[in-house]
Amino acid sequence: MTEYCPLITNEQDSVLVLIDIQQRLTAAMPNAVGERLIAQVSILLTAAKMLSLPIIVTEQYPKGLGPTESALKLLLSEKVPVIEKTSFSAAKVDSFLAAIADTKRTQIILTGMETHICIMQSALDLQQQGYQVFVVEDAVSSRTITNQINALQRLRQAGVIISNVESIIFEWLGDAKHPAFKSVSKLII
User: Fold this and answer.
1) Residue 129: CB partners within 8 Å, gap ≥ 6?
2) Residue 80: which of 105, 107, 60, 52 has the closest Cα?
3) Are 15 and 53 in contact (CB under 8 A)?
4) Is 153 helix (H, G, I), strand (E, B) or coil?
5) Which burial class, exposed, middle or buried, applies to 145 when counting CB atoms under 10 A from its CB (0-12, 13-18, 19+)?
6) Which of 59, 79, 103, 156 is deepest in the core (most CB within 10 A)?
7) Under the phi-then-psi rule, with left for phi > 0, alpha for psi from -120 to 50, and beta for the rest, what region is 28?
8) Catalytic residue (choose from 63, 94, 104, 118)
9) pLDDT tens digits for 155-180?
10) E strands along 28-74, which residues?
């Protein structure tokens, strides 16, 4: 890992990770929380694809929680690794760590469910392993707002960077002169 870690993401070092955005988990979310999460992750996922960033997906016990949400699966190429797990921390799964290592990137951008369980444990473990971890606040969720807020506070206290979809995308672009600026910025504006 690099010694100097900037506090913003960049296109060359980032890998986007979708943690456990599965049908039965989404259905357990209150009100429109699941729909909002899928919409926000879709924007980030589309931008990552347009910029050719590596993407990794995890599924927590898919036999019981179902597959990744179909709206997101439609956006994934068959080259995207989908890693099944039972460990709450993706960073304790050898195939996940191998997929991250294969990218040769140091910034891990986490989205998904649930913030206070799989997101938090994965973020803290990845950080301990030397990665710079970003949790996308408007692209993660928990079944209760209290759990969500608590997890984000704990992550901040631990030094994990909490960001949002728009900030991440514009950090990846870096400049309005970026060749993909017009097409990527249309996802948000």
Assistant:
1) 91, 97
2) 52
3) yes
4) helix
5) exposed
6) 59
7) alpha
8) 118
9) 999 999 999 999 999 999 999 999 99
10) 55-60
How high does pLDDT run on average in the chain? 95
Decide if 114 contacts 142 (C-beta within 8 A): yes
Which listed residue (5, 49, 73, 85) is catalytic?
A: 85
Among residues 5, 13, 20, 177, which one is catalytic? 20
Ordered domains of the chain (ranges, CATH): 14-185 (3.40.50.850)
104 catalytic per annotation: no
Beta strands 82-85 and 107-113 are: unpaired
Question: For residues 18 and 112, is the Cβ–Cβ distance under 8 A?
Answer: yes
Q: Which DSSP string do the residues of 69-105 spell out, in sequence order? A: -HHHHTTS-TTS-EEEESSSSGGG-HHHHHHHHHHT-
Q: Are 10 and 107 in contact (CB under 8 A)?
A: yes
Mark whether 5 is an active-site residue. Answer: no
pLDDT category, 130, cuts 50, 70, 90? very high
